[in-house]
Q: What sequence folds into this?
């Protein structure tokens, strides 16, 4: 096989001009070779205009709000280490903004109105300037109002400064999204006034699960998988509905890299190419040890890069199915342009179980996971993860110091969540669900990806055990469409969450609701505590399943005020948001961070250290 | 009337518990900034405005809702009627102002026989329950005012429940209990059984009402949701008076019990 990447690098090293199509990176080639239907910009200076413009989706006319007149906005192609300037001009009648999702830029360039800057006023141009700090697949979107739902998003690909450890012959960027002809303010109002009104999979007389028993008593519906369904949404791949058939071309034997971005407002997707295994090589822009699978569920704002290597000269369907299976977007990967793969039928709608309510006891697949063996605030002999596995942790109970533990125990900060108008608090017993693939994928006849399978390709840099643990409950009252952290809506917040520059801490997210929440923290990565030792996958967005308990370790490096929120747009809009303030070392409230102790518990994964060996 | 003037303000303002409905609906302003690191770059005033806006966008939205649960023609042996039962509210998640109205008019002569309107302050007190307090005014038949205290909510097993107690300006205490259930036959074809009982603590001869259980209405409406917001329906309802109330009604030559057929529209926005 031709190692095109290395060829490209040697050509550039020799000062060659990019004259031959063969030497062009995949994204720069003609439409038939890749990225058909998506505009692309590269270099170091970018002019982005935010405006309203007409779009035609699934044969119907609508009005979008977006970037440079296309939906999605143009692919921004950066090079790691470049200093880039992006002039963003607001041609709307209202404020706008762009947030570079997952990019570790200085906080005043992060693009969140009210946190990092005032926002971009109508007619104003805001100049974003930063050094591109990393490489991989990311995206950008508005952080103002509900503009994301209207088309204000686009993909980012950053080419690495060093040779890419992932080898591929061509690549496609796939931006998944949910489009509605109903204005997002109306959708939000419908959810507030009658939260079940957008769900057309409710329990019926002939299918009454959820009317009686514990469900009826709790006034919870096991058919409440997604707040907004395919009845309201048209699902899109690069702006194309299934009927518009987004086309990707390959030659048999090629390794094709798919950079998949979930840019939806509200939709988690199940992604698969029936008959074609995928090797996942990157999650949230950072390389992982390759893992082969047949299907995965991706939360809003997550990205996955996969390699597919079709050998047969036939058309394959790329399927992005909404988590509630009320709709899907299908694209074609075929040996010739213009082919149309057969779209698979929608699968039966999943039904939530008592486990999603946090009420299941007994044998759980999650019980065997070994997060507890990782060095965390849980000390040896005081295995905190073991507590919830054995069912003693009552979730909202503040943790008392362990009398048998070491003299100095790390601080655990957890609010006492009270049931009230905004908090139903159904997850009586949250436990880790890292070994589960997500709602509806439990009993698939094929392989499904789980968070517990992810391992960072590069060893984690910070090996310190976390010095303290902050526990945050994801809370809601679905009946009033109220969503919050720790029972406090963003509008009621009086103090941000404080991190201290230089510290290593653990954030534990407990989902007291029955919906999965893709939780995103700006400005720093989550090291997902999933049994990966020093190869924890590093993510900017972690989906917390119903009644799930997920821990992430964080190195608080980047000073600033950073948005922390559920990436389901209407959950954020309803109040599921907070701010994390990383206070600088010089700040009077900064307590000082002790010198890092050498970590005795080093898990060297020799196989994973061999970077060259994974792209066979 | 004096009694009402004394009782109503006390009821409304004390039940709000936080200085009255209007103050409660206005969001309190944040005193010290919850974060402020960008102030150094963009100025404290500019950032304070932007911070206020982003906070308000995170759960402090107000909405306006209007719902005609029943907008229907009733066909009965004695008389055909037009009847309505609707509500509207404005406010946020916890505090709302409500307006409710119900009544009926004769389809024969167009005369409004009963019409009431309520204005209530509503406060969410538990995950599924709101307490409401305010004023009811009966435009017809007699222009009587009442103080109202009500409990609205969703009971276990998905029963919508509304209970209210009324104290009239003449000092008469009455109550109403309503329950509704929505049974989905399909995702759009919905059968809605409902029951409403009226009670009185004392006889009110002016209104042909005895004491105790005065009447029960039980209805069954089958609607088709063309959209969730727009659903025509067919149905029937059984009305019956009890005890002294029934005797008083029958003494006037009217029926103490009837079955009516309904054609109507349920709509909300």
A:
């Amino acid at each position: 096989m031709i190692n095109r990447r290395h060829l490209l690098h040697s050509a550039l090293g020799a000062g060659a001009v990019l004259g031959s199509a063969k030497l062009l990176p995949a994204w720069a080639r003609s439409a038939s070779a890749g990225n058909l239907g998506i505009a692309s910009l590269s270099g170091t200076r970018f002019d982005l205009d935010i405006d309203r413009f007409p779009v035609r989706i699934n044969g119907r006319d609508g009005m979008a709000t977006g970037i440079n007149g296309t939906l999605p906005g143009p692919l921004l192609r950066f090079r790691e280490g470049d200093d880039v300037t992006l002039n963003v001009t607001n041609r709307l009648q209202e404020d706008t903004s762009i947030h570079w999702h997952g990019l570790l830029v200085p906080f005043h360039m992060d693009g969140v109105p009210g946190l990092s800057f005032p926002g971009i006023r109508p007619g104003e141009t805001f100049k974003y300037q930063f050094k591109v700090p990393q490489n991989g697949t990311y995206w950008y979107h508005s952080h103002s109002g509900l503009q994301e739902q209207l088309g204000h998003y686009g993909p980012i690909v950053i080419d690495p400064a060093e040779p890419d450890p992932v080898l591929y012959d061509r690549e496609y960027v796939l931006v998944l999204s949910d489009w509605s002809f109903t204005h997002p303010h109306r959708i939000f109002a419908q959810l507030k006034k009658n939260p079940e009104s957008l769900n057309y999979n409710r329990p019926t007389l002939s299918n009454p699960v959820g009317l009686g028993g514990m469900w009826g008593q709790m006034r919870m519906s096991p058919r409440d998988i997604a707040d907004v369904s395919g009845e309201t949404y048209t699902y899109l791949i690069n702006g194309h509905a299934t009927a518009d058939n987004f086309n990707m071309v390959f030659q048999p034997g090629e390794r094709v890299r798919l950079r998949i971005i979930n840019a939806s407002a509200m939709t988690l997707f199940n992604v698969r190419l029936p008959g074609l295994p995928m090797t996942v090589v990157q999650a949230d822009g950072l390389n992982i040890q390759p893992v082969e699978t047949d299907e995965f569920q991706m939360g809003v704002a997550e990205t996955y890069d996969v390699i597919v290597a079709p050998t047969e000269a036939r058309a394959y369907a790329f399927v992005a199915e909404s988590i509630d299976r009320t709709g899907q977007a299908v694209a074609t990967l075929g040996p010739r342009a213009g082919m149309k793969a057969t779209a698979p039928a929608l699968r039966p709608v999943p039904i939530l179980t008592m486990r999603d309510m946090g009420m299941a006891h007994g044998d759980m697949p999650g019980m065997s996971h070994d997060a507890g063996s990782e060095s965390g605030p849980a000390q040896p002999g005081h295995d905190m993860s073991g507590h919830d596995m054995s069912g003693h942790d009552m979730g909202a109970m503040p943790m008392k110091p362990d009398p048998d533990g070491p003299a100095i125990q790390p601080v655990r900060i957890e609010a006492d969540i009270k049931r009230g108008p905004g908090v139903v608090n159904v997850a009586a017993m949250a436990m880790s669900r890292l070994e589960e693939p997500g709602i509806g994928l439990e009993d698939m006849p094929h392989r499904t990806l789980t968070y517990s399978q992810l391992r960072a390709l590069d060893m984690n840099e910070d090996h310190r055990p976390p010095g303290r643990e902050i526990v945050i409950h994801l809370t809601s009252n679905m009946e009033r469409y109220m969503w919050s952290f720790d029972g406090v809506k963003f509008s009621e917040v009086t103090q941000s969450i404080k991190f201290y520059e230089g510290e290593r801490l653990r954030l534990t997210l407990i989902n007291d609701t029955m919906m999965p929440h893709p939780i995103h923290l700006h400005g720093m990565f989550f090291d997902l505590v999933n049994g990966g030792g020093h190869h924890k996958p590093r993510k900017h967005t972690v989906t917390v399943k119903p009644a799930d308990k997920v821990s992430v370790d964080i190195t608080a490096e980047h000073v600033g005020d950073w948005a922390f929120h559920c990436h389901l747009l209407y959950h954020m809009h309803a109040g599921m948001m907070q701010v994390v303030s990383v206070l600088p070392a010089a700040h009077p409230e900064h307590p000082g961070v002790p010198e890092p102790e050498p970590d005795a518990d080093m898990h060297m994964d020799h196989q994973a250290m061999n970077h060259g060996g994974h792209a066979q | 009337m004096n009694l009402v003037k004394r009782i109503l303000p006390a009821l409304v303002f004390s039940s709000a518990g936080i200085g009255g409905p209007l103050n409660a609906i206005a969001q309190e302003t944040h005193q010290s900034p919850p974060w402020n690191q960008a102030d150094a770059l963009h100025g404290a005033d500019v950032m304070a405005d932007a911070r206020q806006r982003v906070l308000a966008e995170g759960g402090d939205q107000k909405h306006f809702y209007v719902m005609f649960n029943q907008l229907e023609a009733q066909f009965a042996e004695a008389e055909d009627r037009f009847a309505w039962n609707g509500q509207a509210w404005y406010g946020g998640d916890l505090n709302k102002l409500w307006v409710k109205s119900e009544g009926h008019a004769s389809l024969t002569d167009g005369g409004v026989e009963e019409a009431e309107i309520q204005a209530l302050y509503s406060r969410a007190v538990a995950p599924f329950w709101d307490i409401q307090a305010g004023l009811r005014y009966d435009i017809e038949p007699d222009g009587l005012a009442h103080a109202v205290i009500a409990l609205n909510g969703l009971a276990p097993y998905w029963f919508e429940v509304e209970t209210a107690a009324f104290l009239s300006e003449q000092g008469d205490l009455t109550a109403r209990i309503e329950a509704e259930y929505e049974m989905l036959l399909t995702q759009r074809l919905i059968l809605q059984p409902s029951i409403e009982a009226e009670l009185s603590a004392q006889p009110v001869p002016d209104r042909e009402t005895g004491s105790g259980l005065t009447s029960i209405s039980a209805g069954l409406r089958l609607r088709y949701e063309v959209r969730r917001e727009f659903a025509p329906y067919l149905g029937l309802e059984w009305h019956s008076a009890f005890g002294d109330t029934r005797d008083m009604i029958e003494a006037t030559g009217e029926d103490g019990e009837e079955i009516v057929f309904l054609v109507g529209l349920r709509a909300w926005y």
In short: The CA atoms of residues 18 and 248 of chain A lie 24 Å apart. Confidence is low (pLDDT under 50) at residues 1-34, 361-373, 377-401, 598-616 of chain A.
